[in-house]
Amino acid sequence: MKHLNLNLLTGLYDFHCHLHKVENLTKILEKLHQISMGVLVMTESPLEYQTIKKLFNNHLIHTCLGLFPLSINRDKIELFFKLLPNCKYIGEIGLDYSVVCNSKRKLQVAFLERVLYESSISTNKIISLHSRGASLDMVNMIKIKFNGTLILHWFSGSVTLAKQVNENVYFSINTAMIKSKNSKKLIKSLNPSRLLLETDSPSVLYKMRQTNPLDALAIIDYLANIWRISPNEVSLILKTNTKKALG
Ligand SMILES: [Zn+2]
Predict the structure, then answer these.
(1) What integer best gives the mean pLDDT of the chain?
(2) Is residue 4 part of a domain?
(3) Tens digit of pLDDT for each residue in 134-175?
(4) Gap from CA of 118 to ligand 1 centroid (Å)
(5) Number of independent structural domains in the chain
(6) Ligand 1 centre from 70 Cα, in Å?
C-alpha cells in the first residue's frame, strides 16, 4: 500500500469494532479524536454493553447494545429488550449457524425477528448484523420494511444472494474481506453507495498483527484501485454513505 494520509478517514466510521479490546487503546483513541473518525463499538451481551458504554465519552464513539447469537439465553434476552428502547445503536446481533443444534438456531431467528420488529416501531436505529453461515436466512429476514439502518457486517453470501438484499441495506467491509477471493467478487459487484467501512478489530488480523480502526485506511486504498478513482474520491463517497447510514 502506498503511504496514505490518515486524514482520509476524517468523517468516516468504523461500523463494526470491538474497540474496548484493541491494543494501545489510549493512543488509538487520541488518534481517532485527532482525525475525527468515529466508531461503532460492538458488545456481545447487554451486560457488556452496560460496562463498556461508561468507557467512552466522545460524541463520535457509540457503544452498541449487543447480544452475540452464540451466547443467547433467557436472562440476556430479557435485559436486552429492557434496554432496547433507549438504544439507538445495536450490535452485534444476528445469526451464527456454526452452531448445528436446530433449537438454538430457532432461538436466534426468533430473537432477531423480535429485535427487528421492536426496532422498527421506535426511533431510527442503526443495527450491525452478523450472519456467519446464515447468509440466506439473514437475507430473507431483512426483506422487511425497516425504519432505521441495517448493516450487513462481513457478509459472506454469494453475489447472487447479495443482489436480493433490499437497496437501503448497507454492507460493511473489513481488511479480511479485501484479501478473500469470494469477498472481493462481492465488493466489486456492489454499488459504491452501499458500502461502509469496518475493521472488526482487534480479532481480525492484518499484516500478521491485531487490527484497530485506523486499518480501515487499507480498505480505502483497495477501493481506489478497483474503482479506478483516487483515495480522496473514495473517502468522499464513503463520507456520503456514512452520513446517510447514521441518519
Ligand atoms: Zn464482531
Answers:
(1) 96
(2) no
(3) 999 999 999 998 989 999 999 999 999 999 999 999 999 999
(4) 22
(5) 1
(6) 12
